[in-house]
Structure formats: structure tokens, C-alpha cells
Amino acid sequence: MKAYNEYMNKISVSGTLHQRLVSCVDETRPVHRPFMIKRYTAAFACLAVMLFGVFVMPQLMQNTLTPTPGENPSVSQSGKDMPTPDASSNYTLYFNKADAQSAADIAIPGHFWQELTDEELKAVFPALTKTHSITATANFQSDKSGASLINIDAHAVSDTGLKTYILLVPGEVVLDYGFDAETNASDVLGTPVTAGYFETNPNSKGVRNIIYFATFKLSDIAYYVELDGAEVEKEALKEELTSLIGTLIKGEAADISVFHPIIPELRNDRISLDEARADADFGSYIPETLPEGFAFESATRFINQERNTLFINWTKGMGSISWRVSLLDDNDKTRITSVTNTKNYDLALYPIPRADSVPEELREIVDNPIFPIDELTLDTVRARTYEVSDAGDESGPRMRFSVLCRDILVELSVKGASPEAMFEILQQIAVLTDGKREVGFINTREWANYTVGGDVRNYAESPEKLQELIAFPITEAASAQYSFAKLGKNGEVISGYSLQNQQLAEAIIMDSLIKFSVWYGVDITTLEESYLIRQTFQGSGETHDYYAYLLDDGTAVLQRGAKGMYSVLSQELYSELAESFENLIMDTWPENQYTEGVPKPDFGTMLWMRSDEEQGYFAVAYQQVSKEQIELYIQALMDDSWHTIHDFYENTTIGGLYEKGTHAISLQFAGNQFVMYLSLK
Amino acid sequence: MAYKSYQPEDFEAFVTKHENRLYRSALAITGNISDAEDIVQEAFLRAYEKAPKFESEEHEKAWLIRVTVNLCNSRLRSPWHKRRSPLLDSYPASEPEQHELLEQIMALPSKYRTVIHLFYYEGYSIKDISELAGQKEATVRSHLTRARQKLKSVLKEDDYESI
User: Fold this and answer.
1) What is the pLDDT of residue A410?
2) Between chains, do B45 and A6 touch, taking CB under 8 Å as contact?
3) Which has fewest Cβ within 10 Å: A8, A92, A488, B140?
4) Where are the domains of chain B?
5) Radius of gyration for the alpha carbons in chain B, expressed in angstroms and rounded
């Protein structure tokens, strides 16, 4: 192995790596970065660079900076290729080279932010709003005594599309570190400006980027500006930044008295398991039992303007179950997948290393897919499970995926628990959402959010908004229509009707939902007989299917979804449902008080008939009917002296109400089906 | 020894003393420069944060190597780690014989490369390696034997000393 040893002896760390290792303890570690302030990360990275520019850059210079007067703005770059300042320039801004970039790890308690309105933008950037398109965010720090502005970060886009980052900090910049060094500055319209640039390492395509930055102060506001782009664009970048700085200085200091922030709900609390279970928003999504041996480790409740989460961790030796409950975010929606779409989640399809085997466009979803809880199966969980056999760590199964319960996302990352055990505890969530949860649901903020289609707390903004909430048309959200069908083998529709039997449908669904226990359902297509109740919500058009059927022991049950969970249904309600179909007599055209004098349809196939003396009508339905046949039938009514009360004709739909003497006929035709209601005045 | 009490120049001396050893170990195990760089940095960070009290120089060295080996294993175990470019592309071998040996070593599974590196380059015993890698002595012995069998065609006779 002499050759091997000789080879290894020749390998040494580079100077760059050595510097990185020596300074690594000063740098931010991503795992420790507070997740609450992701937008702050960039801001403080910039501040770090700014300090570098202010304090260190001059030391790195080889040439002395000399402000140069002139007519028009121009820029130059220190170093051997530093151009001669333009004699006609109004000011010359020198960019000093930086050779390192670092960031501080700063957590800001009570941090929140708000986007600047047009009026606020004009107050903060009085001159720049005329030349650039600006978006900006004001960051605040809050405590019990109120809120104070920390900074404003903004992006200004020029006519040519260059996007400059601007940071404004009231007073002095305060960080938990600094550089002790001399400073030098260029003079821009009487304001000292310190500028610099930083060259990145070439990327995989060999392209190097340059970041130009500068800092200055107007009144009591410190400004930091930054513009980056490809090295080939550096002249345009310098010119844009120089021009922008001039505009900012001409516009004078920002007016930050325009802000009157409202402190939102903010939390970042370590809580007990009991407190987590009692949480109004997410407590119901915590399983009651865990796989054997797992013990509660920690729980954190976090709320800010972006995230609203409850995080819980259970451990067993080196194994762990991380359970994170949150509101579904728009960014999460791209990871939602049906279990039928195995390419989105089945790890068996993708050999390790997955960075090579998973197509780029599927990486995000394969890494952490989101399954609707109703669809989750044990096979799905197994498809997400992989084994690790290396020594030195927990062996056994691992998995990572999420389930979606309405708009609540439960993300789990598991080490050391079997897929069977995890599926079992996820069924507890399914129970909560399919069964008991519906009952408790009406008292929670979640339900309120669901009903108003957003965060109900937003209605507390003003008395007017509160009035909107009070007058919210809640009945529309809750209003549903029902249709029924009797199904045979393979889910074939034997007969169906869409009468307004809302009372029976709601009684059946509610009776089932209030049952605490649910069980795995069956594939409806395997049943000899079942009844489908389709619930359709007006407005949204959302539909829910419920299937009523008898178990082998004769117990009536109601199952949500064709492959969902079921709970026990009242035997009386089941009988009433079944009877409603038995009343759909399939017989010949009857002679009764309702049909007297009514032309008998001589087309199509009779689907069902129903007579209801209490309600006072007779109904009959036909299928395999054409539009032309209906038009001829209506013509026959007209020829027989029936009067049109109202009617409508659309492409494939015909309907109308017709009267003659004491008799009335209501017709509805759609598709190839035709329903006729006969009643007496 | 606690590095939080060290002055920056002391920490730099500490890094200088161990960086090449750790870097070579990480390179040998991962076979990739960027992984090795990250791992060595993480190892020094852990040393700084945990500030363990070392009983001796040897203990200090062993602790760092153990952390490095564990970090390498974690990195390689990640299902998302990328397939890497061969080490020899980054650090070409100077001699054809060296190239052939290195090529065969780098073709071994990482667990064999770990044992080979610690045994032949670092000079650790089977017992030491079992402690460093968190494996049974029999496992380490087995790995070393199998690795040597695979390398048989390029290993010289004197590499077959008794273990």
C-alpha cells in the first residue's frame, strides 16, 4: 500500500479550504438559522457584506481612493485596471473588492413585517419611485410595549430590468460582530458613500457573478444597496447602481414616520404534549397512541405571518417520529398526489442515489409527497419506506411524507418505526377527520376559516370588517343538494333519483358522522348491493359520496368515499333509504288522479315511478330519451290545450311547467333522461 | 481542552494540525472533494461546539477521525447524495501503478475503503478501527479481508501481514 500512502500524502487542504475551516466557527450554520425569518437571512447576509464593505474593503485596496468631481455620474473599479475618472463626472464612485462573504445568525423575537403601500413607498423612496418600479417590506420587532421598525428591504427594478436590493436601517446598523478597520469613502453629491464588489466562484458552467454594493447614510437612516449579475454585465451593473445611489441621495432621507403597524399573532413556544393536544387549531391532529417504545420528546407551537405550525417529536433511542401540523400553504400544493400516481412517490422506482434516478421535475414531490388522508393505504406507506443498514445509526425503516386532511397538512419524518405502525397511527388521524372531527369541527377556528374561505381573524381589522363577518352568508356554504342511486355489482347504477329528499340524506350522514369509531371500508364495486348518496355543495360544486350498505352480519354502515372509512348507521335510517327505492315502482303507466288527462309518453324506457300522497305528486322517470322526442311531447301538450307557465330550452336541457285545468306537469330533460312531476292545483 | 476558551490563533493551530489527516480520510471514504470539504468543516465545527476534553494527542486525533467517519457515513447514507466524479479526476495519480491501485480502491464499497484507509494509511489496529467506526472487531476484520481479496491483484506481498 505504499503507492496509496504516497498518493494520500500528496493531498493537502487548499489555502481556501484552510481559511474556511479556520473561520467556520464564525459563520452561520444553516441548521441553527431561525426558521422564522427567512426573508431576514438575505437581509443580514447583505448587512454582513455591507460591514465588510465599510470596514474591511479599504484595507484590501491596493490603491488610494480619490473622489473626483465632474458633470455626470460614472463608476470605476479599484485595481490595476482602474480607469481614469471621467473629468466630466459629477461624482465618481469607486468599488473596492471584497474577498469574503459571511452572515450572522440573528434571531429577532417578535418579528413581523408588512408590504409597503404606494403612499408609504413614496414617503420612503421619494425620488426613486419616479424612475424605478419598487416593492418593499418593512420589518418590525414587537413586544408587549408595541412595535418598532427594524429595517425596510426593497427591490427597485430599472427600465432595463436590473433589480437592485435596497436596505434601509434606522439609526446605526447593529450586529453581533464587526470589523475593526479604517474606512474610506467616495463623495456622491456631498454624501460619503463606501462601495465594493464581490466576485463569486465560477458556477458549474464556469460563469462568475459579481455583486456590487454600497452603503451611505442620509439623516439618521443607513442605506445599503446591492446589485448583482453576470460578470459580462459588470459595466451596466455599476452604472445602474451609481445612478440609483444618486437618485436616492437627491430624494433625501426616507420618511419612516408613515408606518403604523398592527402586530399580528406571533408565537414561538415550547409546550407540553397536553398543551399540544389542547391546541385549538391542530390539537386534534396528534395521534393518541404511538408505536411501542416511542416517548414524547418536545413540542413547539409557532405562528407568524407565513407559518402556523405545531411540531412534535417522539423518540425511541436513536429512532424518532417528527410530526408537524400546519395549514396547507400554496407552496405545498405542488406536492399533493393521488396514490394512484406512483411515479410521484414510490421509492422502489428510484434507485439510490436518487439525485441521479429521480427526474428533476419530480424531485420535490418524490422527496416529500402529500397524500389525501382518505386515499392513504398501507401499500402507500410501504412505498415510502426505505431501509438503512449502516452501522453507527438507527437501523430499520425510515420514511418521509405528508397527509392532507382538508386544508391541514401533517408532515412526518420517521426513523425506526414500521410502515404498519405508522399507517395505524395515521388512521387515528383519519378517524378524527372522517368521524369525530366533523362534530367538534363546528366549534373551532378551523371551521370558521373554512366557512369564510380565509383567516377569520382578518375580520377583526375594523368594525366594518366585523360587520361583514356577522352578515356572512353562511347558509350558502352549508347548503347542499343530494341525489341517490341504488348500486349493484361492480358499482352499476340499478336505479337513481334526485328528489329533494334532503332531510333523509342529512339524517343519514349526520347519524354516521357522530359515531366515534370508524373502520377500514371496502371497495364498493365488490358489493352486491349498496346505496349512493351524493352530496353536492352549491356554489363550490364540491361533491362528497357516501355509500350505505349492510355488512355480512346485517349491520348497516355508511362509508365515505368508494375506498374510505365507514361507521355504523342507524338501522332505521338504512331501512328508510332502502324503502325510498322500493317505492320507485317500475310498472306500466298508472291510471290515477294525477295521470288523468295527461298524454302518456310513448318513448324511452321507464326508469322509475313514485307516488307521494302526502306531498301530493306523482313522478315518473324515463331514460334513453332524445331531445326531439321531448319536443314532440311538449307539442302534443300544446295541441291538447295545456298552457305554458314557463319553460326553458338550452343546448341539451329542456324544462317547463305546464297547466291545464286542475292539473300541472313539470318536465325536466337532460342527457338522455326525462323526469315528469304531475300534481294537482 | 475546550476550544471555546481558545484564542482564534489557537483554533487555527488546532485546525492546521489535523486538517490534512481529516481531509484525506474524508476523501478516501467519500471519494469526492466537495463532500470531503464539507465534512471536515463540520468535524471542526463539532470540535469547537462540543469542546470535548481530550486526554491526549492520540485521543484528540481519534475523536476527530471518529467524527469524520460518522459524518462520511451519514453523507453516503443520504438517499439524495449525488453520484460523484472519481477522485482520480480531481487528484490524478502520478504513477501508473499508483493509478491502478487507487482506481481499484475507489471502486470498493465505502465501508471497505474506510477500513483500508484507517488500517494502511492511519496505521490503526483492527481494535482501534472497530472503536472508531463503531463496528465489531469481527466485522472490521471481515471487511479488511474482503477488501484485500478484491485488491489482491495490485497489492504487494508485504501487505498481507498477519492481522
Assistant:
1) 92
2) no
3) A488
4) 1-92, 93-163
5) 16
Tell me how close the Cα of A352 comes to any Cα of chain B, in angstroms: 6
- A13, A17, A353: residue with CB nearest B82: A353
Quote the pLDDT of residue A131: 92
Extract the C-alpha cell encoding A252: 433625501
**Over the stretch B80-102, which tens digit does the pLDDT of each residue have?**
766 666 777 778 887 787 888 88
Task: Report residue A655 as a C-alpha cell.
Answer: 324544462
Q: Under CATH, which number does the domain A605-680 receive?
A: 3.30.310
Domain ranges of chain A: 30-258, 267-441, 477-582, 605-680
Q: Which of residues 87-126 of B touch A (CB under 8 A)?
A: 91, 93-95, 97-98, 101-102, 105, 111, 116-117, 120-121
Tell me: pLDDT of A74 over 50.
no
Nearest CA to B115 out of B28, B35, B34, B33 is that of B28
Q: Is there a contact between B37 and A352 if contact means CB atoms under 8 Å apart?
A: no
Q: Report B:58-87 residues touching A (Cβ under 8 A).
A: 70, 73-74, 76-77, 79-83
| B3 pLDDT higher than 50 | no
Task: Please tell us whether the domain made up of B93-163 is placed in CATH 1.10.10.10.
Answer: yes
CATH topology identical between B1-92 and B93-163: no
Give the CATH number of domain B1-92; options: 3.40.50.850, 3.30.70.1520, 1.10.1740.10, 1.10.3290.10: 1.10.1740.10
Closest chain A C-alpha to B128 CA, distance in angstroms: 15
Q: Which residues of B touch A10 (CB under 8 A)?
A: 91, 94
Cβ-Cβ contacts under 8 Å for A575 (sequence gap 6 or more): none
CB-CB neighbours of A509 under 10 Å: 22
ipTM: 0.89
Angle at A584 between CA A579 and CA A586, to 5 degrees: 135
Inter-chain residue contact B134 with A391, CB threshold 8 Å: yes
Q: Is the Cβ of B45 closer than 8 Å to some Cβ of chain A?
A: yes
Cell 481559511 belongs to residue: A19
